[in-house]
Amino acid sequence: xxxxxxxxxxxPGVSTREIDPGYLDSQKVMTMVFLTIxxxxxVLTLAxxxxxxxxxxxxxxxINICFSIALLLASTLFLLQNIIAADDDSGPIKMGSIGC
Length: 100
Known about the structure:
This protein is an all-alpha fold. Helices cover 59% and strands 0% of the residues. It has helices at residues 21-49, 53-56, 59-84.
């Protein structure tokens, strides 16, 4: 007995119950709201730093601007991925993989 249950070829910790569709919908809405708020915050950060020439010349502000641009790009791409991915998995971005 190797501890492997042949009836349930699932990974440990994986639930056998289906996730409630209402939970998935609310999770998607919350993700979109939080990402949108994050993107707005990053845009406001850049809008405050970039016009001030004295601030732009300081090294910590340059680093903060670079991080803000990187986070803005990542958040925008993640938001775009959520918009492009179709709920029925028919869009250009597939939600599952062969191993799942």
